[in-house]
Each structure stands twice: as C-alpha cells, then as structure tokens.
Design brief:
Elements (H helix, E strand, L loop, with lengths): L7 E4 L5 H12 L3 E6 L3 H8 L7 E5 L5 H15 L4 E4 L14 H32 L3 E6 L3 H4 L7 H21 L4 E8 L5 H8 L4 H6 L9 H13 L9 E4 L7
Parallel strand pairs: 1-2, 1-4, 2-3, 4-5, 5-6, 6-7
C-alpha cells in the first residue's frame, strides 16, 4: 500500500464498479476522497463507508450537463482548497447504436456517449491543468479501455470505443504538453473487468462463459487490480511513466 496521506483526490463515477474500488482503495491509503456520483448516492456511500467521514466528500454531478461538471470541479476544489489527483473514470456504454439502427437513434447514441465520455471528462482535464499550473503540478489518471486501441467487438457500441479513444488521446496530449510544468498524466486501459457494465456487454456477445473462454487467464479483471494501479500512479513514485498507457487485461491483448 502506498501512502497517500494529505492528497486530495477527485474520483468520478465512484458509486459502482471500477470507480467505487478506486475511491475505496485510495481512501484506505490515506487520501482525502471526493467521490462523484450521478444518481446513485447510496453506491458512493457504500464505497466510502469504511473511511473516516471527515476525509470523504460525496458530490453529485450529471455528466450530460456541462454546467453540472463545472460545478463539480468548483465544489471539489472548495472542499480543501486544492485537488492533487483527478481520476477521470465515469463513463457510459450504450448497446443500441449500431449501423443498422435508424439514423435518429444512431445520432442520439453518439451524442450522449460523446457528451458523457468525452466532453464532460475533457472539461475536468481542462480545469485540472489550469489548477495544476497555479499549484506547481498534479496528477491526472484517465480510465480508458482496451477498446480505445483495438476497437469494440460489438459494433452496436461503436460510439463507446471512439469516445474512449478520444479522451485517451486528450490525456496523452496533456502529458506531452505539460510534462515540464509538473503535470503528470497517465492512462489505464482495462480489458474485461468484473463489473455490471461488463456483465451487460457479455450478454451481447454470447454470455459470460463465452467471454471468459476468450480470455488468456480465463478470468475477468478484478476492479481491485485497477484500483491498485491507480493508487500506484497517484503516489507520484513513477513520474517518468507520465504519458504511458497501462494495459490491465490479463495478457488477452498485448500491444
């Protein structure tokens, strides 16, 4: 376990799955946690229930509304006066945006996906960089996906893969452009993680057993593996990994 005492960390999508595991782990390592949730406050409460309540701040934000995203940043910043690490995790995956769909549904899926998975986290990237330029640096961790590199296997979720690729690239650009100013930016690209979202994905691809059989380790990635990696990156002990993409998929996809 790395010592994150004194660090203030904003984790988006902290009410379930990967985000909940990250918030739980980083808080257990001593960080002050701002846990963003959309509609599921109870999930965010469960993720942080074991933590000292004085070191947790739960904030609601609707990522389909950019004003809400801006308000999230301002409220998170106001809590302790700075944010040391931004973990851009919140995302959606929609299953009915395939090419065979009516163009109205195609457009709706793309618009919603790009709004939540690109425009909202990009606003947070922007605010983080501005803040870090004033405070001698900080860290950004973007939770991407192996879909950002290899595409999605279900073409009905084509917008998801494209969106993950966009925010992946934006994070790399920040890493390159601001490295000399103390801003560290990393990408974590999970494969099939044991979450509700992956369960739903599996049902579109022949079921959980079919997905499991396709994996090199014959098992899904535990969310805790993602959380452990984010803890390591948040610690600041590997500054020169900035700009890197860390693949976590159990050797199922090797670049």
């Amino acid at each position: 376990m790395y010592d994150l005492a004194g660090k203030t960390i904003l984790v988006t999508g902290a009410s379930k799955g990967i985000g909940a595991a990250i918030a739980s782990r980083l808080g257990a390592s001593g960080a002050f946690i701002v846990a963003q949730y959309g509609a599921d406050r109870a999930g965010a409460e469960r993720a942080t229930a074991h933590l000292d309540s004085s070191r947790t701040c739960l904030l609601q934000a609707d990522f389909s509304d950019l004003d809400s995203v801006e308000a999230l940043w301002q409220s998170a910043l106001a809590w302790r006066g700075r944010i040391d690490v931004l973990v851009n995790n919140a995302a959606i995956m929609l299953w009915d945006g395939g090419i065979e769909q009516p163009v109205e549904r195609w457009d709706a899926v793309w618009n919603e996906t790009l709004q939540v998975n690109v425009l909202a986290p990009a606003r947070l990237l922007r605010q983080a960089v501005k803040h870090y330029l004033e405070t001698d640096g900080g860290t950004i961790v973007t939770i991407s996906s192996w879909a950002a590199q290899k595409g999605v296997t279900n073409p009905a979720s084509i917008a998801y893969g494209a969106a993950k690729s966009a925010i992946h690239n934006a994070t790399q650009t920040i890493a390159r452009a601001y490295a000399s100013q103390g801003i560290l930016a990393y990408i974590v690209a999970p494969g099939v993680v044991r979450t509700r979202l992956s369960d739903q994905f599996a049902e579109t691809q022949g079921g959980k057993e079919a997905i499991t059989d396709s994996l090199a380790m014959k098992e899904w990635v535990p969310p805790e593996d993602i959380a452990n990696t984010v803890e390591f990156l948040s610690s600041g002990v590997a500054r020169h990994l900035s700009g890197a993409t860390l693949d976590i998929n159990g050797a199922s996809y090797i670049r």
